[in-house]
Design a protein that fits this description.
Blueprint: E1 7-12, E2 21-25, E3 28-34, E4 40-44, E5 58-60, E6 63-65, E7 72-73, E8 79-81, E9 96-97, E10 99-102, E11 105-109, E12 133-141, H1 145-153, H2 158-161, H3 169-173, E13 177-181, E14 186-197, H4 200-206, E15 211-221, E16 225-233, E17 249-261, E18 264-273, H5 280-309, H6 323-341
Antiparallel strand pairs: 1-11, 2-3, 3-4, 4-9, 5-6, 6-7, 7-8, 10-11, 12-18, 13-14, 14-15, 15-16, 16-17, 17-18
The structure holds FE2/S2 (inorganic) cluster and fe (ii) ion (FE2).
The site of FE2/S2 (inorganic) cluster (FES) has 9 residues, from loops.
Length: about 350
């Protein structure tokens, strides 16, 4: 069951062109594109005439023309022209999905009815390009959403799966603290590693060498938004009592977890940093590293899903490192029950 009354990342802003993109989100096929004036539009990716995907159509001005027989739709999904006649059938409209562009990401409201804007995650670091440089990408995983939640909530896997880029021994050995905000449905996982080796991901970009303090503070806003506050600082220099932390390097690591269909999930990612702002070389270095880190996760999750598909009885042994993931499962289950009652 999918949780529908939420915002999910639907696309990277850079992906949207007048040539439509086809995405399946929560099992629904959606055509996403820009009109010639630049407006981002998402419509049901199925023509009401004979069902051809509208994502195979063509944008003409502010309209999308079906690539099969030319039914034509405006930005609201209203059918405004059909070939060979003036009268437009009443049932020829398609659903328009509400989109919001925020920095690198385009969010879609998957609920029915009016979108709840208060639920839209805040990502100011992706918008404030004066103080933060951001890059982003997306990977498609042939594994269920729940595998990605588990993966992101337990970063001890960095030590083993991402050894050599972001994983060092201390990620797995440093205990975590977990907090659940039941009021707002947020899961927080803290891991503060002090006086540890700086992995290449950060040493090359911050210039810090040898030992550093490295903090990983996760905030998971179920179902679809995850934010990791990474802090890299010289050893023994925590934030000042007034909150000033200018002596540290900060990276915000975002994931948009967007279920595609049963057993498939989109893994949108973005990195925003408050150092080397505007440095294209650092952008390229981080992108290369992150793409390979994400691919390591994709490969692992694809394998887990393939095993799960073999319908061999699987049992799990959970330990302390799993407390974040287990908390996330509990919150998601409670949200699912609430959704069923609504
Ligand atoms: S299927 Fe789209 S116009 Fe015929
Ligand atoms: Fe990972």
């Amino acid at each position: 069951m999918f949780l529908r009354n939420h915002w999910y990342v639907a696309a990277l802003s850079a992906e949207l062109e007048t040539k439509p993109l086809s995405r399946q989100i929560l099992g629904e096929h959606i055509a996403i594109y820009r009109t010639e004036s630049g407006e981002a539009v998402a419509l049901t990716d199925q023509c009401p005439h004979r069902g051809y995907p509208l994502s195979l159509g063509t944008v003409v001005g502010e309209r999308l023309v079906c690539g099969y027989h030319g039914f034509t739709f405006d930005c609201s999904g209203t059918c405004v022209a059909v070939p060979g006649q003036d009268r437009i059938p009443g049932r020829a409209d398609v659903r328009r999905y509400v989109l919001v562009e925020q920095g690198l990401w385009v969010w879609v409201w998957m609920g029915r009815g009016e979108p709840d804007v208060s639920l839209l995650p805040a990502t100011p670091w992706l918008v404030d390009t004066l103080h933060w440089s951001a890059i982003g990408g997306v990977a498609k995983i042939d594994a269920g959403f729940e595998f990605l939640v588990d993966n992101l909530l337990d970063l001890s896997h960095e030590t083993f799966l991402h050894n050599g880029s972001i994983g060092t021994p201390e990620v797995a050995t440093t205990p975590i603290e977990v907090e659940v905000d039941d009021e707002d449905d947020v899961v927080r996982v803290y891991r503060h590693m002090n006086s540890v080796d700086c992995p290449p991901f950060y040493s090359r970009t911050t210039g810090l060498e040898g030992k550093v303090d490295r903090w990983q503070d996760i905030e998971y806003f179920p179902p679809g938004f995850y934010l990791l506050h990474a802090r890299i600082a010289p050893v023994g220099q925590p934030p000042l009592p007034d909150g000033n932390d200018d002596h540290a390097f900060h990276m915000k690591i975002f994931y948009g977890l967007t279920p595609s269909a049963e057993g498939k999930v989109y893994d949108f990612w973005a990195l925003a940093r408050d150092f080397c702002v505007g440095d294209d070389d650092i952008d390229r270095f981080l992108e290369k590293m992150q793409v390979s880190v994400v691919q390591e996760d994709v490969d692992a999750l694809n394998i887990l899903q393939a095993r799960a598909n073999e319908s061999v009885e699987m049992s799990e042994v959970s330990v302390k490192i799993d407390r974040g993931g287990l908390a996330a499962r509990r919150v998601l289950a409670a949200m699912g029950e609430t959704a069923l009652r609504e």
